[in-house]
Each structure stands twice: as C-alpha cells, then as structure tokens.
Design goal:
The protein is mainly β. The chain contains four helices and 23 strands. The N terminus is likely disordered.
C-alpha cells in the first residue's frame, strides 16, 4: 500500500482551498462499498466521475457508485473493499492561519452516540427563544438549553439563558472531553436543529465572558450537518467540514478572534441534530 495513503488514512487532505478525506479500504465519502473484490493493487479514485481507475494502467473498473465530493483529480487509495468496521481515525489538524482547529471523527462510537442522542432529545428542557433583527422579532431557528456550574450565567445576542444544573450524563461527557482538550469547562450550550431549516448564522464565540483565546469543544449527535469556517479578513482562508455523528470538534487559540463559523440551512430532507458546545465562562 502506498505510504502516502497509509499516512493520511482518515485525514482531511487540503486540495486547493478545500479538504477531502482519505480512506484506505472500503469507504469513500458518504458511501460504504461492500462485497467488492479487486486485485489488491492500489486504486486511484477520480471524484465526480463515479469511476475507479487502476493505478497500474488507468483502466476503469466497475464498482458501485463511488463517491460524490467537490474534489476533482485528487488521488485516493484503496486495497480491498471489506465488509468490516470503520477505521479508528486519528485527530485531524486543519492547516488554517490564526486558528487551531482539531477534529475527532469518532470521539463516540455509534452505540454511544445513538444512546446519548435519544436521551438528550427526550429529556432536555428545550426552549425556543426569540431574537430581534432590525427591529423585528423572530423565533430563533433552533432550540436551546444551557447547563453549568452554580453561579455561571451566559448571554448572547441580547438573550440571557436559564442555567440548569449538570446531569450525571453531561458531567461524564464533560470529563471525557476535558481529558482531550486539556482544560476545564464549567458550562455547555445545547442546540437542537430539528430539521434542515434550523440553522445558526455566521458568528464567533468571542463574548467578553469567554475571555482571551477561548477553547470551544463541540460534539455532534444525530444527523450530520456541514460546518463552515471563514477568516474575518483573509477571504481565501475558509473551510467546510461535515460534522459526523459522534464527532468532536475543538476550536482553540485565536480561532474565535479571527474566524466566524456557521451551520447553514439545507434543502435536504434530514432529521434532528444535537450539538453540545462546552466552554468556560469567567
């Protein structure tokens, strides 16, 4: 197997201004390829063409639908298509100036992720707040709930959130994340995106009570959504990440001071997503 593919398995590799994930084995993009048999030689995949090409002679090979991505001409590598569990991915460090962004695709295994989603979806005291835009009041396009230590309060966009006491489930999740982030959190904001129409517009988590260079830890449960990052002044630096269920995204350093992020609306028919953002309020 090509050493480039081995070294970058599970990583997002930069191609122009975007990123593409490299897989070895049976999975590409959003598609799982099973019950396939090849000769075992490395394969090049040319996205958008839904065609595998042999690295030996470039001949097209017949397969199920390969992948659909925004990347053309970036070689990906396979050995055999196997019907086995997914690889355990290493953390993905994004090469962005003025930022420290690290992505853990499999922070929670599928069983843990599904159980936690069901528990939080049905037992969280979700509330729908209103926001004021240009003098008019609108319902916020998502539901929220805020948990934290005693005496911790949080407000954003002229909204002051009610603080609920930690549950054993959220405390355990917080402790697990703190080991990875190497910091202590005292609060978590939960967002429930009910469908593709719910969203979160461009913003930065840079409120003064978060302090200088805040660390934000974001966990995704339920349906996957795209997460966009863009630099405030260097417009060529932007990133689009598909946040998988059970994943953890860490934003550290000066990220919040130089970048904005959003969860945009989508026309796709998708189900609910829960996002938990752990933070330290000072």
């Amino acid at each position: 197997m090509d050493q480039y593919a081995r070294r970058n398995c599970g990583r997002y590799v930069r191609y122009r201004t975007l990123y593409c994930k490299i897989y070895i084995g049976f999975r590409l993009g959003n598609n799982s390829l099973t019950n396939c048999r090849f000769s075992g030689q490395p394969l090049y995949v040319y996205p958008r063409k839904s065609t595998f090409r042999s690295a030996k002679n470039g001949a097209a090979l017949s397969t199920p639908d390969a992948t659909s991505t925004d990347f053309v001409g970036l070689p990906l590598y396979l050995n055999y298509c196997m019907n086995t569990s997914l690889f355990t991915y290493e953390p993905i460090h994004f090469d962005l100036p003025d930022a420290e962004v690290v992505y853990y695709p499999t922070f929670l295994n599928p069983s843990e992720s599904e159980q936690l989603f069901e528990l939080l979806h049905h037992q969280t005291p979700w509330q729908e707040d209103t926001i004021r835009v240009f003098g008019k009041t609108y319902p916020q396009p998502r539901l929220t709930a805020f948990y934290g230590d005693d005496g911790v309060n949080y407000a954003y966009s002229n909204l002051r959130l009610q603080t609920f006491s930690w549950t054993p489930t959220l405390l355990k999740l917080k402790e697990d994340i703190e080991q990875i982030a190497e910091t202590q959190f005292n609060s978590v904001l939960l967002n429930l995106y009910r469908n593709g129409k719910d969203s979160n517009g461009w913003h930065a988590d840079n409120e003064k009570e978060l302090g200088l260079n805040p660390i934000i830890a974001s966990v995704t449960l339920g349906f996957e959504r795209f997460f966009h990052l863009k630099h405030n002044s260097k417009l060529e630096y932007k990133c689009k990440i598909k946040l998988e269920k059970g994943s953890l995204l860490l934003m550290k350093g000066s990220t919040q001071h130089f970048y904005k992020h959003q969860i945009p609306k989508t026309n796709q028919e998708i189900g609910p997503r829960i996002n938990l953002t752990f933070r330290t309020i000072k």
